[in-house]
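Inverse folding, one chain.
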């Protein structure tokens, strides 16, 4: 029986994850198909219930369901629980286990960006959704001393900070209102800037003006393409990285959870490149532009 793994999001028209995961299954001769399920929030519970069937190995969960899926699983890993967001489901019999492999993916991406330099201690995070939660969890555990979260809707940033409450008690984790002058003041002191909003995904806009970027910043955009923010940052003299490494490594970790086998990371990376160069712009649900066959 061909096993099934699904990506549940809304929308999930075209996906870099599908290209990566199917290439990995095929490369290792695993009889499994990676499917895209576009399910609006009202249909999420029904879709999750369907995964209890024997043919399913598990699932990826994406925009906008990563936080909403939490109460629908039978068990969460400690990491998923601490993060408050789930991006991968595995099975224990008919039971569903929620994981968060974005955390591991982000850590690989940050380590690669910082390279041999000492890991900084002060970060500014733009965004407070599921991706931002994985970022903040990682930064807290990486030993950052000050992390400031800016979000369009301040209350969501405040909820995020509240969620981390005790685990971040030793450090300064705060949500601040999205005002350019406040972002500028924080950025002048920070060493790391993470964009975990979806600004720049569908169009060529940046969440912040180029003028407030300082040259000694490490800038990581979770979006997997050279966004305007990254181009502005590179022009300002910053070290930059897009979301490709994070996507690849969260996917590799999910693959291992489903199959018990080491992920063929190079094969997945090549499939990612081919799909992206063919015009697929989304791993996460937003419809791609110039859609390629995946
Ligand atoms: P969510 O839907 O959970 O959160 C979206 C975030 O973007 C919120 O903070 C939201 O703010 C903000 N936002 C959206 N539109 C605007 C806007 N017009 N102005 C200001 N803020 C806006 O999504 P995720 O957290 O899951 O994903 C966020 C981004 O990160 C996406 O681009 C996604 O592709 C990327 N990502 C990449 C990963 C990777 O592996 N590389 C992994 C996870 C995410 P508000 O709360 O105010 O609406």
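Residues assigned per position:
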């Amino acid at each position: 029986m061909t096993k099934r793994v699904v990506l549940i999001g809304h929308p999930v028209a075209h996906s870099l994850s599908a290209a990566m995961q199917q290439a990995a299954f095929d490369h290792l001769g695993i009889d499994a198909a990676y499917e895209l399920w576009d399910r609006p929030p009202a249909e999420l519970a029904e879709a999750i219930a369907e995964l209890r069937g024997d043919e399913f190995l598990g699932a990826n969960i994406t925009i906008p369901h990563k936080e909403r899926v939490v109460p629908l699983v039978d068990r969460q890993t400690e990491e998923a629980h601490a993060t408050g967001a789930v991006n991968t489901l595995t099975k224990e019999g008919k039971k569903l286990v929620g994981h968060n492999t974005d955390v591991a993916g982000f850590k690989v991406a940050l380590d690669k960006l910082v390279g041999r330099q000492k890991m900084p201690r002060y970060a500014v995070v733009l965004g407070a959704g599921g991706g931002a939660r994985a970022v903040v969890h990682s930064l807290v555990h990486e030993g950052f001393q000050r992390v400031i979260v800016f979000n369009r809707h301040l209350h969501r940033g405040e909820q995020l900070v509240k969620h981390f409450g005790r685990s971040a008690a030793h450090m300064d984790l705060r949500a601040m209102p999205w005002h350019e002058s406040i972002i500028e003041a924080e950025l002048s002191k920070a060493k790391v800037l993470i964009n975990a909003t979806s600004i720049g995904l569908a169009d060529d806009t940046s969440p912040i003006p180029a003028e407030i970027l300082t040259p000694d910043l490490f800038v990581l955009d979770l979006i997997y393409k050279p966004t305007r923010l990254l181009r502005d940052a590179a022009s300002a003299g910053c070290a930059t990285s897009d979301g490709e490494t994070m996507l690849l490594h969260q996917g590799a970790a999910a693959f291992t959870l489903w199959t018990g086998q080491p992920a063929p990371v190079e094969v997945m990376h090549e499939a990612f490149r081919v799909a992206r160069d063919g015009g697929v712009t989304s791993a996460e649900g937003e419809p791609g532009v110039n859609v390629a066959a995946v």
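Residues 244-259 form the longest helix (16 residues). The radius of gyration is 18 Å.
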